[in-house]
Design brief:
alpha/beta, Rossmann fold, 3 domains, six-stranded mixed sheet, five-stranded antiparallel sheet, 15 helices, 28% helix
Length: 451
């Protein structure tokens, strides 16, 4: 007899356009989350979220414990950062993020003894019991304040400060909360494992976010390639106001604007936000982190990261401290295979290729993809064929080749005329381009021009 989660997979909707890249999630989908051993040192970037950077609040040689604030957020659109290990603060350094930005960081050398490790750390972050009843006793403002104090940002990759989304705006009331569990990027399975292994924390966080925003409807959204996760969430949400919506598997189904259209049939106006149409969207991992912040009083110090791809020996899903290096994660997964050709921060569609593995994990690091020579074999780049395939698949209904032309011509006017700011850099255009044009890289360059 089929469950209602299985039956709901037959009632699927989606958005217009998009692509269907090979998912390749089987590499790490069955790998239960492991806890990364405490690294000898972490480097915690002071700018790892959208908005204003933090200001270091600790000095060298200061002893800190897990959860201590090491970077203060002075602006509203910002989020503090916390020590992810116990140890001694080293001299302030500069780190290079995957997008090429050089930012200040607080380095912490690990103490010989850590308060939590292994299974005990997992239980503190995501394990144990998560209440579903009585959460309405938490005041809306207190929930948003807890999110800010805990340094919560969107863990799906955007890293937008969560408290800003949760703050009520009387002029723009919220009726629906969408909890995004689509994880549409190929290879990545961090959210999938969280939904399987700790669904109760997601449900508790969703109910708290509902309380904060005043939403009357709470929908957890998944693609139909995750039936086990749907069953786990349905069981965890039984008897609550949280319901599931199963969507067709298509990229980029997890984009906010695509999700709103697929689930609610609402269109976000140009230059607008989901808030403008009465919706707040949060990632499943962000919901779980909100539950931990409010119920357990813990800040955001760790997150789950997928390490996958044909170029890594043992694809895994790891619970890691913010500030650990990509190199340490890859080494824990057995290291690189001989045929490894490219390491990508994130997934292959929207991620950034790395020139070094000495890059720190940030709050927005959802995965590391290691591609083999075969997977990155390049097509010979030719002139644009004027075939229009990039236009056919663009979920934002843009003309990517015009934006690429604007970048090559250094034309700010042309970039603005073709709405470069609306591009979400999903990579659909480059994926289908028969000429092998680096469309996303050129569009990113056009965005820099118009700033």
């Amino acid at each position: 007899m089929s469950t209602s989660a299985e039956r709901s997979c037959r009632k699927k909707s989606t958005f217009a356009r998009g692509v269907h890249p090979a998912g390749r999630k089987q590499l790490a989908a069955e790998a239960a989350v492991e806890v990364l051993p405490t690294p000898a040192e972490v480097r915690i970037a002071l700018q790892q979220h959208l908005g204003a950077p933090c200001k270091a609040s600790v000095k060298p040689r200061t002893e800190v414990a897990v959860g201590d604030v090491v970077g203060e957020a002075e602006a509203f659109v910002s989020a503090p950062v916390h020590a992810s290990i116990s140890g001694t603060v080293a001299r302030q350094s500069t780190v290079t993020l995957p997008n090429g930005r050089h930012v200040a960081a607080v380095s912490i050398r690990a103490a010989d003894e850590q308060p939590l490790s292994g299974r005990a750390l997992w239980d503190d972050v995501h394990g144990g019991q998560w209440p579903r009843d009585g959460l309405d006793r938490h005041d809306a403002e207190a929930i948003a304040a807890a999110a800010r104090s805990a340094g919560l940002v969107g863990l799906g990759g955007a890293a937008f400060p969560t408290h800003v989304k949760l703050a009520r705006n009387d002029k723009k009331p919220i009726d629906t909360l969408l909890v995004n569990g689509c994880e549409c990027e190929p290879y990545l399975t961090a959210d999938y494992r969280l939904m399987l292994e700790a669904p109760a924390s997601i449900v508790a966080g969703a109910l708290l976010a509902r309380q904060a925003t005043g939403a009357s409807d709470v929908v957890v959204c998944l693609e139909d390639n995750k039936p086990k996760a749907a069953q786990a969430l349905e069981a965890a949400a039984e008897g609550t106001e949280v319901r599931l919506k199963i969507l067709k598997t298509k990229y980029p189904q997890g984009g906010e604007k695509q999700l709103l259209w697929a689930v609610l049939g609402r269109k976000v106006p140009g230059g607008g936000l989901p808030l403008d149409v009465g919706v707040v969207v949060t990632n499943v991992a962000t919901a779980a982190a909100l539950a931990r912040a409010v119920i357990r009083g813990r800040p955001l110090t760790h997150r789950i990261v997928s390490v996958s791809g044909a170029g890594v020996r043992e694809p895994k899903n790891l619970l890691v401290p913010i500030g650990a290096s990509y190199r340490e994660l890859i080494d824990f997964c057995g290291g690189l295979r001989d045929g490894a050709a490219r390491v990508v921060a994130g997934g292959p569609m929207m991620g950034f290729t790395l020139g070094s593995l000495d890059v720190p994990v940030t709050k927005g690091t959802s995965g590391i993809t290691v591609l083999s020579q075969e997977e990155v074999r390049r097509r010979e780049q030719t002139a644009c064929l004027r075939c229009g395939r990039c236009v056919d698949v663009c979920p934002m209904r843009l003309v990517p080749t015009r934006l690429a032309l604007a970048a090559r011509a250094s034309s700010v006017d042309l970039a603005r005329r073709y709405h470069v700011a609306a591009c979400m850099e999903c990579g659909c255009c480059a994926y289908v381009c028969p000429a092998g044009l680096p469309l996303v890289q050129l569009i990113r360059l056009a965005k820099v021009m118009v700033q």
